[in-house]
């Protein structure tokens, strides 16, 4: 299928506290966005839509052209919205008519290996309406109300969701057209619209850079010699 990737990079990065929109914060010599895009361009794609902070579209395009190699003509840049969901919606509106499968990827998951993209695409190829990478939950989890533990939660039936999250384009378009509430990921929105979403193995390196500690972790990982 013809795969389009929406890279959402319009977040403010308030929790990172780096004084710049998160996507443009450097990890090593390269920004979070540039690292994310080098993973994206390793996948077989027909279009890459970057959703940038409003006013920073030109900077996002420069980062993309620096990593796109001979696939520069596949890149589009649009401005994002106030929420992640609004940013994804802006990306969806910029997809070309012939894109059949959409992957939505957080730029903040800058070190996501190419095999995660491949697993998600393979699941949709195999007939799934949607597929997302997940990792087992490591911590023991509790349900709390205020400062009181009200229940234990069986972590065996839980998973941590990552990106890229992939969907048949018609499924994602319909889910976004119908979305009433604000959801924190696309799988929740698609599930709400009644479609099953498959789980494929995620990867520890697909962690989201959110806090200064996450950024430190990414810096250390890039500084380590490859195994
Ligand atoms: O805020 P959070 O960490 O969940 O953001 C996940 C991804 O969504 C990030 O890559 C961020 O740039 C993007 N985002 C966006 N527009 C927003 C908020 C977040 O594109 N308004």
UniProtKB/TrEMBL annotation:
What is this protein's function?
Bifunctional enzyme that catalyzes the formation of 4-diphosphocytidyl-2-C-methyl-D-erythritol from CTP and 2-C-methyl-D-erythritol 4-phosphate (MEP) (IspD), and catalyzes the conversion of 4-diphosphocytidyl-2-C-methyl-D-erythritol 2-phosphate (CDP-ME2P) to 2-C-methyl-D-erythritol 2,4-cyclodiphosphate (ME-CPP) with a corresponding release of cytidine 5-monophosphate (CMP) (IspF).
Q: State the family it belongs to.
A: Belongs to the IspD/TarI cytidylyltransferase family. IspD subfamily. Belongs to the IspF family.
A Gene Ontology molecular function term for this protein is: 2-C-methyl-D-erythritol 4-phosphate cytidylyltransferase activity
Q: Does the keyword Cell division apply?
A: no
The annotated site for Positions MEP for the nucleophilic attack falls at: 155, 208
Q: In which pathway does it act?
A: Isoprenoid biosynthesis; isopentenyl diphosphate biosynthesis via DXP pathway; isopentenyl diphosphate from 1-deoxy-D-xylulose 5-phosphate: step 2/6; Isoprenoid biosynthesis; isopentenyl diphosphate biosynthesis via DXP pathway; isopentenyl diphosphate from 1-deoxy-D-xylulose 5-phosphate: step 4/6
Q: Which organism is it from?
A: Microbacterium trichothecenolyticum
- Kindly state a single biological-process term from the GO annotations of this entry: terpenoid biosynthetic process
Q: Which UniProt keywords are given for this protein, alphabetically ordered?
A: Isoprene biosynthesis, Lyase, Metal-binding, Multifunctional enzyme, Nucleotidyltransferase, Transferase
**Per the entry, which co-factors are needed?**
a divalent metal cation
Parent-protein start and end of this portion: 7 to 233 of 400
Q: What is its EC number?
A: 2.7.7.60, 4.6.1.12
- State what protein this is by name: Bifunctional enzyme IspD/IspF
What ranges does the record give for the region 2-C-methyl-D-erythritol 4-phosphate cytidylyltransferase, renumbered to this chain? Answer: 1-227
């Amino acid at each position: 299928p013809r795969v389009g990737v929406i890279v959402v990079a319009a977040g403010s990065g308030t929790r990172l506290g780096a004084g710049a929109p998160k996507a443009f914060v450097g990890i090593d010599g390269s920004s979070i966005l540039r690292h994310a895009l080098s993973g994206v361009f390793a996948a077989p794609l027909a279009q890459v839509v970057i959703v940038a902070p409003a006013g920073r579209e030109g900077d996002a395009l420069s980062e993309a052209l620096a990593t796109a190699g001979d696939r520069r003509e596949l890149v589009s840049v649009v401005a994002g919205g106030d929420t992640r969901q609004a940013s994804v919606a802006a990306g969806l509106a910029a997809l070309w008519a012939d894109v059949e499968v959409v992957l939505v990827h957080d730029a903040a998951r800058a070190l996501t290996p190419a095999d995660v993209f491949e697993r998600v695409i393979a699941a949709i190829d195999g007939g799934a309406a949607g597929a997302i990478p997940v990792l087992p939950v490591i911590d023991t989890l509790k349900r709390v109300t205020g400062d009181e533990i009200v229940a234990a939660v069986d972590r065996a039936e839980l998973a941590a969701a990552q990106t890229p999250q992939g969907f048949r384009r018609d499924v994602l378009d319909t889910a976004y057209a119908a979305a009433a509430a604000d959801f924190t990921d696309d799988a929740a929105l698609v599930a709400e619209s009644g479609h099953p979403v498959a789980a494929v193995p995620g990867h520890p390196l697909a962690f989201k850079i959110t806090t200064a500690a996450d950024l430190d972790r990414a810096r250390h990982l890039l500084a380590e010699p490859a195994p």
